[in-house]
Amino acid sequence: MRYANVIVDITHEKLDKTFQYIIPDELKDSVYPGVQAEVPFGRGNRSIKCYVVEVTDTAEYDMSKMKKIIRIVPDSIPIESQLIAVAAWIKENYGSTMNRALKTVIPVHRTIKEKRQEYVRLKASISETKSLMEKYHHDKRMSARVRLLEELVSKEEISMELLTKKMGISKNVIKSLKESGIIDIRYDTIYRTPFGNPGTESERNILSDEQRETVSSIVTEMDSPSGIRTHLIFGVTGSGKTEVYMECIEHVLSKGRQVIVLIPEIALTYQNVTRFYKRFGDKVSIINSRMSQGERYDQFRMAKEGKVQIMIGPRSALFTPFSDLGLIIIDEEHEPAYKSETVPKYHARETAIMRAGLTDATVILGSATPSTEAFYKAENGEYMLHRMDNRVKNKPMPKVNVVDLRQELKEGNKSIFSRKLMELIKDRISKSQQVILFVNRRGYAGFVSCRSCGKPLRCPHCDVSLTYHKRAGREIMSCHYCGYQIEKPKLCPVCGSKYMGKFGIGTESVEEKISELFPEAKVLRMDMDTTSGKDGHEKILSSFANHDADILVGTQMIVKGHDFPKVTLVGVIAADLSLYASDYRATERTFQLLTQAAGRAGRGEESGEVVIQTYSPEEYSIVEAANQDYDAFYRKEISYRNLMRYPPVYNMAAILITSDNEKLCCEGAQDIAQRIKKSHIDGLTVIGASEASVSKINDIYRYVIYIKHNDYNALVHIKNGVELYIDKKVIYKKRLTVQFDFTPMDNY
Ligand code: ADP
Ligand code: ZN
Ligand code: ZN
Prior knowledge:
Elements: E1 3-7, E2 19-22, E3 36-41, E4 46-56, E5 71-72, H1 79-94, H2 98-105, E6 116-122, H3 126-136, H4 143-154, E7 157-159, H5 160-166, H6 171-179, E8 183-189, H7 209-223, E9 230-235, H8 241-254, E10 258-262, H9 270-280, E11 284-286, H10 293-304, E12 310-313, E13 325-331, H11 348-358, E14 362-367, H12 372-379, E15 384-388, E16 399-404, H13 405-410, H14 419-430, E17 434-438, E18 449-450, E19 467-471, E20 474-478, E21 485-487, E22 500-501, H15 507-517, E23 523-526, H16 536-545, E24 551-554, E25 567-572, H17 586-598, E26 609-614, H18 620-627, H19 630-643, E27 651-659, H20 662-678, E28 685-697, E29 700-709, H21 712-728, H22 730-735, E30 737-741
Parallel strand pairs: 9-14, 9-15, 10-12, 10-13, 11-12, 13-14, 16-26, 17-24, 17-25, 23-24, 25-26
Antiparallel strand pairs: 1-2, 1-4, 3-4, 3-5, 6-7, 6-8, 18-22, 19-20, 20-21, 27-29, 27-30, 28-29
The chain binds adenosine-5'-diphosphate and zinc ion (2 copies).
The site of one zinc ion has 8 residues, from loops.
């Protein structure tokens, strides 16, 4: 017997309120998540419409009392059905409960107070009003009334906001005129848009040859019924990808379909978004994570009601309820922010492709430093690759200098700034040009490295950095991929130096030191501390864009998609730090950060220069970033991934097992790992279970198992098996939490 879990009111806050029905035999093949059905409901068995969210073999209620689905609503694929189908796919592919998956994709309705706009208009006739104005004319106390009436005679209505804020007319004046029946107030519910509407502007750039070719081949595919639906635009920084996106958007809009544009949160700046507003006016809407629940809901409602056709936003904008979606654009496709950090840990790239499939929509991925995942698929023909190798208007790529910090130290320079960087900063300030100093801090906290040779402690088995733990007063270095452990050595195993430490340079100290060295320069800092307030990062970026400061010091958040024409120098203070983060993507991430940082230089009239300071000038991520040679980097990286059986060549999933009971967590994790191993799936690699690198959070113990296979479905199969196994063991079900991560990138 098969059962269907259904929800009756999709917009209800309590999405978890599901009802179970029996699927009659004749409907066996036509009931699946997303389908709209009719069921008998309540005491009177009134027939109502519902959505199927899950199909299962398990009866959750007394079977004898369970009712049957009456029929399937034919040919209806409302937007809710599409989103439920997306949720079901997310649940299956990333591991999650259906309820959580639904909450991720469906904008939950909250009863929110709608903001009302008030408009004032005349109630009395024009002649009546004019004689009243005569009467008030010489009375000074009535001057506000006269001004208001004068306006109303010539205009149909005026918003209350304009009257009280701009024209200085008090609410009392308006109230008394209303009471004497001369004016009237009309209420209108408005949608809260974060920006005003800048309107459309017709001036457009003439596309470069590369831009035009890219647009025309994408459009050709779109218009062909059997065309390729996923495209990767690999365009160097400043090659004009946004212009290409906008042309494609225009094409899709002309067919009456809608568009979603994903931009990493940090790059959702006024500057970037305005380009879309200027081109598409009020067809555009925006969501960001600083908006309230109500504001987001409004944006989604406008989309559903067809009041906007383009939604721009971070990852969550992917679930905008457009019913005839034609295009999804993912800008800066390589950004880690496209992966959800909370369960379900879906990745926007794969989820976008899945969602696009429902309405035969196109997906365009764009990046100057494509993720190895996307490029691998493009190489294998799964995505269509479009290259844009040149900056628009033939602007040159910046010149890159690599400085070896070990050599600087040998030659007596103990400062964190190399001589080359100092010299160039001085030069730029004297020419009143701008400088960006990028402090690469990612992942520095967990690893230990040598101050003399710059080498970190690494796992001999896994080629990742060891992670520092302090346990019972002992300093332990452990590998969270294989469980390898050693006591923290006193001397560097590479060069014998005793200067081994957890080190890192913070933005604050860079800011302090640069201000000491260049007291005449104005310095701005951008990091987690300075951007915490609402619109904090926007303020810093716009003040830097206005040239209120000469030097901007910041973390990776300054390297993303910003366009500062006056920046002619980018300094990378210590390029290595992200290289030794303890995950296999560290090299890729370093290459991306350095290339993107370099790409901020020389976007205006003057050409740019970059200084990369490093302890490991021979590392290929640094060498190829300096050469700005993505292809060379990719070839080296992919052969390493292949050798180590890492993604994208192999598929890998992390299974995180947590519990408040240490013994149960450890034993349960080992047991699950054993079961997976015993399943004897050909070509499967199981690593662990081992203690997670963060082995305890809030008194919850954490263990991790990694599984690798060249077939993604094999991993999904294992996930389903583990879920079943946990479900059947009462003690596990009660005390263990098991989470899956199919694109593990962070530390467990
Ligand atoms: P990318 O996203 O590839 O780094 P952008 O789309 O931000 O590049 O374009 C870089 C700059 O070049 C922007 O200021 C943009 O307005 C400008 N631009 C883009 N295409 C053209 C063009 N065809 N002609 C002139 N300027 C252009
Ligand atoms: Zn290891
Ligand atoms: Zn050393």
